[in-house]
Write a structure and sequence with these properties.
single chain; 451 residues
């Protein structure tokens, strides 16, 4: 049963005028802070911290435990929080109260994560970060379909792609600088030891501050139209209905969901094992710093391709651009799998970065006309599952496979993981063939979202 349309805000996205640049920027600020945080933690922070406690033969398994548990928490919380925000009659709006509360609690948990003295304290704090930040993130992403006219989906997609790339880039650079001791070469031993013990805390404190500042700016700049009357459903009924899906009425959406999930599995495998590939396969002396340097050509290619890809998708269609991105990412993963040195890694990063820029700019725009608007936040939560579940799978599979094979032959497992990323990108391309793209008309009644 769909929600009563009388519970929807009086102002619909289709009635909105074109949004000025400042509106798109306000939407991207919080997204930037969130991706900065996860870019630092997922691409380098967790790997570096776990390496302080465990060796190559065990680190992959513990990485898998954190990835699985955190992914489950993030998936469930985003869907449920989104469903509650769809029905919220708070005078400040449906989404912003969740964004404020979730962000403040998530920032506190992030500081606790940085101060964790051992693995199990670290694991508990990470689960709290997943819990509270996803309370905010699920409702936040619904601000896009709530406040942007469907005719601007391509434009909004490009801006969101750039924000995600800048966040990933900033997070990677921040982690590379904060977690590397290369800059302290020649310093007194006491200073190096003191910095090593506090570097994770300093990084997490900076990210928490940036996340809170982004929340304040976005919530002040974006105004919402509250629901006209409170929801009538009991709490338990809302929770139960949060996980109901309608495959029959929205088959294209679910094929797209599957394609995106499989492709993201390849992306996350690529990103999560890069540090271990450089450290254990190529044996570079400073893998934290080298991770940043290898990603620089990828970052440049991604930033250059993101906004043009979003705008171009309005004319050429989304599907063919996503296919292009999937093929490019497969080529980049293949270069890492077969390459024998750091030069090949630099070369392989270019098509991978270009693919990442195109994919992140266009993927969610393809879904804009495939979803019902009445429960946009709940469906946003389901859509975001296709980014979270791949993390659940990528961490234990890539980590365990990397450690197991590397125990037989040092460095082999992390090379094989890039072969797995290649297969996943081609698998996502296969499932995309079942999606029937329907270009949104100017008076479309579909919603859209990002992750």
């Amino acid at each position: 049963m769909e929600p009563d349309r009388r519970d929807s805000p009086a102002e619909t996205p289709e009635s909105l005028p074109p949004r000025p640049l400042r509106h798109h920027l306000a939407l991207t600020v919080y997204w930037l802070g969130n991706t900065l945080m996860w870019g630092a933690l997922l691409h380098l922070g967790l790997q570096s911290r776990l390496s302080d406690w465990f060796g190559q033969d065990r680190v992959g398994y513990y990485l898998g435990v954190l990835g699985f548990a955190g992914g489950v928490v993030g998936t469930v919380v985003q869907i449920v929080a989104g469903a509650f925000s769809d029905r919220s009659a708070h005078p400040a709006g449906r989404r912003r109260p969740y964004v404020v509360v979730g962000t403040l609690l998530g920032a506190a948990a992030l500081v606790a994560l940085g101060a964790a003295p051992s693995f199990w304290y670290f694991a508990g704090a990470l689960l709290l970060v997943q819990l509270f930040t996803n309370v905010a993130l699920g409702p936040f992403t619904a601000l896009l379909p709530d406040t942007v006219n469907p005719r601007e989906h391509g434009k909004a997609s490009g801006f969101m792609g750039i924000a995600r790339l800048l966040g990933d880039t900033g997070g990677l650079i921040l982690a590379g600088q904060m977690l590397s001791t290369g800059a302290l070469v020649g310093a007194p031993l006491a200073l190096i030891v003191a910095f090593h013990d506090r570097r994770m805390f300093l990084m997490c404190a900076l990210m928490a501050a940036f996340l809170v500042l982004g929340m304040v700016y976005t919530c002040r700049a974006i105004l919402e139209t509250p629901l006209r009357r409170p929801p009538a459903e009991p709490v338990l009924q809302i929770v139960r209905r949060s996980f109901r899906v309608n495959l029959r009425d929205h088959p294209d959406f679910y094929w797209l969901l599957l394609s995106r999930a499989v492709t993201n599995l390849g992306f996350y495998t690529f990103l999560e094992v890069l540090f271990y590939y450089l450290k254990y396969t190529l044996r570079v002396p400073d893998p934290e710093q080298t991770s940043v340097l290898v990603m620089l050509p990828a970052i440049g290619a991604a930033l250059l391709s993101s906004l043009p890809a979003g705008l171009l998708s309005d004319r050429l269609g989304r599907k063919r651009l996503i296919i292009f991105a999937q093929l490019l990412m497969a080529a980049g993963a293949g270069a890492f799998m077969l390459g024998g040195g750091l030069a090949t890694a630099y070369a392989g990063a270019i098509p991978a970065g270009l693919a990442y820029g195109v994919f992140t700019a266009v993927e969610w725009a393809l879904a804009c006309n495939l979803l019902p608007r009445e429960e946009s936040a709940r469906y946003l939560g389901l859509w975001n599952v296709s980014a979270i579940v791949p993390q659940i799978i990528a961490f234990p599979v890539a980590g365990a496979l990397g450690s197991a094979l590397s125990a037989v032959q040092p460095g082999l497992g992390w090379r094989v993981d890039f072969g797995l990323a290649l297969v996943c990108c081609l698998g996502g391309l296969y499932f995309l063939r079942f999606v029937r793209e329907r270009r949104a008309a100017p008076d479309s009644h579909s919603g859209c979202h990002a992750q």
